[in-house]
Design brief:
The longest helix has 23 residues, at 578-600. The chain contains 22 helices and 18 strands. Helix content is 38%, strand content 12%. The radius of gyration is 39 Å and the shape is extended. It is of the alpha+beta class. The strands form seven sheets. A six-stranded mixed β-sheet has the order 10-11-9-8-14-15, sandwiched between helices. Residues 17-44 form the C2H2-type domain. This is C2H2-type zinc finger transcription factor. GO terms for molecular function: zinc ion binding. It comes from Phycomyces blakesleeanus (strain ATCC 8743b / DSM 1359 / FGSC 10004 / NBRC 33097 / NRRL 1555).
């Protein structure tokens, strides 16, 4: 007898649906369908009277299974981490318990993963935490020891170092900085009022925050270790006929003859100024002022016998915009440095010792437009377009720009900058001319990143790459009537496909570039976003000479480009001698003579001389924090005081010498980090492994 769903009617004639498995009834078919899900394990309809029979059989079968003993060595078709040993009655798992230090390690690893922290920083954090654990006994001696958050740490170091910033009133449009010795109520440029009256308060005024260079140098000189580093200028020994630092140059020797650096504590500094934006697509340009300590870097910079590093870089100010009167912002800095050079610093220590020193600025620098603004030059597009000499510019018959072909023009004198000389392109007197160390045009220097990277390297990139891949017509010669361009007569004309191929060859060679190479070595031909100055330098030194020069058919073009590359390569050397300087000048002469001949033959078209939110308060707070941090890094030896756990520093030149020689008389070596490789130590003893290697190579 088979059962099926059948509809029955009650006396009230209500619909009813009966389950053919358990005889339960439901008012709707949907409810019956949901109910049948509990019978999904039943494959065939079963008679009502036989419903209990499968249950009895299932219980009996279960009883029989329990009687079968567990065989831990039975073959299985699954994998699991459980252990099977003789005598086991089931799958045995060990309940692992994490130790406290392991839990902290996991928590730290989760934070590192969630916030995308680099592996190197993760390692440093682990070392710091291990140092804290090691120094647990010392921490117990303190009252309520704890690691402070960022805010309290900044407050702590500010109170301990006693360094502070100073406010200067500025125009609301960042035109100028008001002279604190004068009672000015209006900006002389835009006529905006100095003070704003809001709710009866007339003292509200925009301010720019600056640091005092004297405050910072006094604390550096007061520290014995830092003062010893600053004395490297006086203690260094020059090598005859070799230039390796500023102190080997003629300018410094002239200052020494004027008795400006008599004391070993005297400090030479340079001023650097550069513009930047605080957001990637921001239109508001900020200007940062640095000092660099030349013990030898506003930025103020110390001149130092060992190469300049960030710890000797002092941020003096961040100007919240591009000022129209830059000299007014520089005046407090120049005035203080002038006073420090004339009267000097006197540091009185608690033991009665007095330390005396004088400070002299020997250089001011930045990028090319910034240096032009420093010396109030009319710019490279004017008739007197060079700030170093009085060469006359010549305009091309078609297009814009200037040619400067005279190689024997008269050099500018110091008086041109001291009093200003409009006839020669110096619009007004230079503020730096107030300093006794001012030497004229040589006082304004250019670093390799701006001069060679963003200067020569970028220009050659435009001439060779962009003019051939993006049809940059600005450099192409024009026809006699000026109606159209003549690319076939362009000096640096190449096939676009050949230039693109060179870019791909750069990409293909990345795997063969040694790890000691400093640049990114990427396909600069196609990837032009975010190209840095160092990338342009690499392009000039390596790509031009190896991949692009062979593509030119004219021997004169190849020779001129190689001469330019060689001259720049010599210029970038750390150490120079007289022979190298002569060779560098000869190579640059080859390049200039080539350009002269191209211009004469009207092959080259000139476009330029060749080469040619108010955030003041926040920016000032940043300068103050940077200054305090820089002072601490210079004067406090945290490694000595804290004795942190730090990883072993190795380089590509660190090797372990193996005593035995091979049959081929080669000295076999191991890279020293080999001893610290964790997974090696898990499998074998390092000395044993080293011995086996020696045996293998004998």
């Amino acid at each position: 007898m088979s059962y099926s769903n059948k509809r029955t009617r009650s006396s009230t004639d209500l619909p009813s649906f009966e389950c053919n498995f358990c005889s339960l009834t439901y008012p709707t078919s949907k409810q019956l369908h949901n109910h049948k899900r509990i019978h999904k394990t039943v494959n065939t309809p079963v008679a009502k009277e036989n419903l209990q029979e499968p249950v009895v059989q299932s219980a009996s079968a279960q009883t029989n299974l329990e009687d079968v003993p567990f065989d831990p060595f039975q073959s299985r078709i699954f994998k699991a981490s459980c252990n099977f040993e003789a005598g086991d009655q089931g799958h045995i798992y060990n309940n692992n318990i994490f130790m406290t230090s392991e839990l902290f390690s996991i928590c730290l690893n989760n934070l590192v993963t969630d916030f995308g922290v680099s592996t190197d920083l993760h390692s440093l954090l682990v070392d710091l935490l291990n140092t804290v654990i090691r120094n647990n006994d010392k921490l117990k001696e303190e009252y309520n020891p704890k690691i402070l958050y960022a805010g309290p740490v900044n407050t702590l170091i500010k109170s301990k170092t006693d360094l502070k910033s100073y406010e200067y009133d500025i125009c609301e449009n960042v035109c100028l900085l008001f002279d604190i010795t004068k009672d000015e109520d209006k900006c002389s440029i835009c006529k905006a009022y100095r003070y704003k009256e809001i709710d009866g308060d007339s003292s509200l005024v925009p301010v720019n925050i600056m640091m005092s260079i004297g405050d910072q140098l006094a604390r550096l000189l007061g520290n014995d270790k830092t003062r010893a580093k600053l004395q490297c200028r006086a203690n260094r020994q020059s090598i005859s006929n070799e230039i390796s630092d500023y102190f080997d140059g003629e300018e410094y020797k002239t200052l020494k003859e004027q008795q400006l650096f008599d004391s070993p504590n005297d400090i030479a500094i340079a001023l650097f100024l550069d513009g930047f934006v605080n957001q990637e697509k921001s239109k508001q340009q900020l200007t940062i002022v640095h000092d660099f300590l030349y013990m030898g870097y506003l930025r103020l910079i110390f001149f130092f016998v060992s190469r300049c590093t960030d710890e000797y870089l002092i941020q003096l100010a961040i100007i919240p915009g591009k000022p129209k009167d830059l000299d007014s912002f520089l005046l407090p800095i120049i005035d203080e440095i002038s006073s420090l050079g004339k009267h000097g610093l006197i540091i009185k220590k608690f033991n009665g010792e007095q330390i005396k020193a004088k400070v002299h600025m020997v250089m001011a620098s930045g990028d090319i437009p910034q240096v032009t603004q420093f010396c109030h030059h009319t710019g490279h597009m004017s008739n007197k377009g060079c700030r170093i000499c009085e060469v006359e510019g010549v305009s091309p018959p078609h297009g814009k720009g200037k040619y400067y072909q005279d190689r024997c023009a008269t050099l500018r004198t110091k008086d041109d900058f001291v009093g200003g000389k409009k006839a020669t392109g110096i619009k007004e007197a230079n503020i730096f001319a107030r300093l006794p160390t001012f030497s004229g045009s040589c006082f304004y220097g250019l670093d390799e990143m701006h001069l060679i990277g963003h200067g020569i390297g970028k220009l050659i990139y435009k001439l060779v790459v962009l003019s051939n891949t993006e049809s940059l017509e600005a450099y192409w010669p024009k026809s006699e009537d000026g109606s159209h361009f003549l690319k076939d007569r362009y000096t640096f004309s190449l096939k676009e496909s050949d230039v693109k191929l060179a870019g791909r060859q750069i990409q293909y060679s990345r795997s063969n570039i040694p790890v000691s190479f400093q640049g990114s070595w990427d396909n600069i031909i196609d990837k032009r976003e975010g190209v840095r100055a160092i990338d342009y330098i690499d392009f000039l030194l390596y790509v031009i000479s190896t991949l692009l020069v062979p593509l030119f058919t004219r021997q004169t073009t190849r020779k001129a480009l190689l001469a330019l590359v060689k001259g720049c390569s010599i210029c970038l050397q750390w150490n120079l001698n007289e022979n190298m300087i002569v060779e560098m000048e000869n190579n640059f002469n080859i390049w200039h003579q080539f350009l002269d001949s191209e211009i004469t033959e009207k092959i080259y078209q000139s476009e330029s001389s060749l080469p040619k939110v108010f955030s003041g308060k926040n920016a000032g707070n940043l300068v103050e924090r940077l200054a305090i941090r820089g002072y601490l890094n210079c004067s406090v030896d945290f490694d000595e005081l804290v004795n942190p756990i730090i990883p072993t520093r190795t380089s590509l030149d660190d090797f372990l010498e193996l005593s035995s020689l091979s049959p081929y008389n080669y000295d076999h070596q191991l890279w020293s980090p080999f001893e610290t490789i964790p997974y090696i130590q898990e499998f074998t003893n390092i000395p044993t492994f080293t011995k086996e290697l020696q045996t293998f190579y004998i």
